[in-house]
Amino acid sequence: MSAWPVRLTTDLGPQSPGSRVTLRPLAYRDSLSWRNARQRNAAWLIPWDATVPPGGDARPTTFRTLVWRLHRQARRGTTYPFAVEVDGRFAGQVTVNNVVRGSAQFASIGYWLDQEFAGRGVMPRAVAMVIDHCFGAARLHRIEIAIRPENSNSLRVVEKLGIREIGYAPKFLHIDGDWRDHRLYAITREECPEGLLARLTAGIDHGESHESHE
Questions:
Q1: What is the average per-residue pLDDT within 8-17?
Q2: Has residue 208 been placed in a domain?
Q3: pLDDT at 145
Q4: What is the C-alpha to C-alpha distance for residues 123 and 205, in angstroms, rounded to an integer?
Q5: Residues 75-130: pLDDT tens digits?
Q6: Can you give the chain as a three-state secondary structure string?
Q7: Model's pTM, two decimal places?
Q8: What's the whole-number mean pLDDT along residues 173-199?
């Protein structure tokens, strides 16, 4: 399997028997579904959305420009932008950012989910598949996730996956109009040799599953 482009899929599990979660490259054809999801979920997502600090380039970006930029970065191997589907319906996004090669072999992950699909175990499975792919085909060694302390929904995703907290970063990212503190979580390939998805589906419970955006 190549690192990119790639398609990943798994059963959703006992919370939604017969349903499937699929991850694939974010595409131009997702424009309408992406915009509709963002508009419907504005109150659910905006508190966790990255913003441009004062003095930065705050010009609005079209979805087409966003996808073009992400595809260019994917070709360079620095970003992997996944669309999340549930039974063929667009449900959110998981993005592998800031891929560093050389002696680090490191990346970070961000994600958001349409509230309609929350509470069904979608995001823990999606993040688990992406991390397994990063440790496998992409040959990365360490994945980090930064989450605002107030974002209890995203915190439950990393807790469900058993990803350990490694630190606290004051004023780490510009989110929702200001510099925000973040809790830092990380996992290395050695910490989960069986794979995160296998560990999750085997029922090793590290916390209640509920999804949001970070």
A1: 86
A2: no
A3: 98
A4: 15
A5: 999 999 999 999 999 999 999 999 999 999 999 999 999 999 999 999 999 999 99
A6: CCCCCCCEEEECCCCCCCCEEEEEECCHHHHHHHHHHHHHCHHHHHHHCECCCCCCCCCCCCHHHHHHHHHHHHHHCCCEEEEEEECCEEEEEEEEEEEECCCCCEEEEEEEECHHHCCCCHHHHHHHHHHHHHHCCCCCCEEEEEECCCCHHHHHHHHHHCCEEEEEEEEEEEECCEEEEEEEEEEEHHHCCCCHHHHHHCCCCCCCCCCCCC
A7: 0.92
A8: 96
In angstroms, rounded to a whole number, what is the distance separating the alpha carbons of residues 214 and 203? 24
- Distance in angstroms (rounded) separating the CA atoms of residues 21 and 201: 13
Number of structural domains the chain divides into = 1
Phi, psi of 98 (to 5 degrees): 55, 50
The pLDDT assigned to 80 comes to: 98
The CATH number of residue 62's host domain is 3.40.630.30
Residue 189 belongs to what domain range?
8-201
CB atoms within 10 A of CB 148: 19
As a whole number, mean pLDDT of residues 10-16 equals 84
Q: How far is CA 184 from CA 79, 147, 154, 167, 173, in A?
A: 20, 7, 12, 5, 12
